[in-house]
Amino acid sequence: MRQEDPVAHHADAKTDADTAHEADARAMRRAVELAALGLGSTSPNPVVGCVITDPAGTVVGEGWHQRAGGPHAEVHALRAAGGAARGGTAYVTLEPCNHTGRTGPCAQALIDAGITRVVYAVPDPNPQAAGGVATLRAAGVETTGEVLRAEAEAGNTPWLTSVRLGRPYVTWKYAATLDGRSAAADGSSRWITSAESRADVHRLRAEADAVLVGGGTLRADDPHLAVRGIEGATQPLRIALDTRAGVLPAARILDDAAPTLLVVGEDADTRHLPGGLDLLRLPLHDGRIAVHDLLAHLHDRGVRSLLLEGGPALAGAFLEGAAVDRVIGYIAPALLGAGPAALADAGVTNISQALRLDITEAVRMGPDLRITAVPTTATKEH
User: Fold this and answer.
1) DSSP code for 341
2) How far apart are CA 379 and CA 214, in angstroms?
3) Is 62 a residue of the active site?
4) Which residues are bridge partners to 165 per DSSP?
5) CA–CA separation, 226 and 207 (whole Å)
6) Tens digit of pLDDT for each residue in 48-90?
7) What does the angle CA 189 – CA 195 – CA 197 come to, to the nearest 5 degrees?
8) Active-site entry in 74, 95, 151, 207
């Protein structure tokens, strides 16, 4: 009588488990890639990707959340899969929602389609939509969570930050010479960085819900702030923080290329501005609008990600208020020796108070260097 080798049997079982784990990771990584296709188009909703496999493990459907108010990723993937989804597995980057809003609950859609297993990456932190896993389990659907969670969270950082902190995720973007100057001594600043860097800034705008500049930048540079060169891009909300409403009626930011919001002090005279302009009046504190007052109002308006393109004073105010979640610097290989610095007063008076950052990426952009960094201490709720 043949006896089984227990060691060999254990090795086979481990190999099967490893194979299943690799299959889960492969399908989830594809779901993360799909989710990224919705960047800039889904706010105030998250980006989500979904992959459906049949009982044999073959991919039969893919989908992603394409726009706010439209079908969720699971619905797109189920439609693509059709009857092949029955008995299969759904891989979703975010826990399937259990909420009926402009669309129905995805947890129930998966149950109705005959899905027998759901693998998700990130638990839903939104109390209005959470509970999908409990609904799935109650219906007898096997669930596995937190597969490639870090990768999926990285792709959904702006939305997750907005849910957890109740304010938009803020990226400060700046361009400077190697010696940290944002303009020459005479104030000229055009073309500090290369065409490649400037094109990349339009990508950042296309991925953001809103772009913000201050009154100084508005008057000195007359920026347009709309996205150019990216086909099908959703234009971000252009926001000008101009406490005294000194913007001229002919300013480029007031054209109809993209929506515009002018943020002014509550007593600012705006009679010279075009009728119908979207205005937000906020109280002044020591002559300034408080950063977190502004962010709270923007969050209420559905802004989940904000690109800060203002000058050094505005950046300093946001950094002093611990309201910057990511810094992207485009560093040109040039030296000016004089002229305004990229960053003004950020409330730091001693080296021990320096705002320390972790560099997460450094890549060449033509002749320039693009550095991405995040604060070493997580931003706190205000």
Assistant:
1) B
2) 23
3) no
4) none
5) 12
6) 999 999 999 999 999 999 988 899 999 999 999 999 999 999 9
7) 80
8) 74
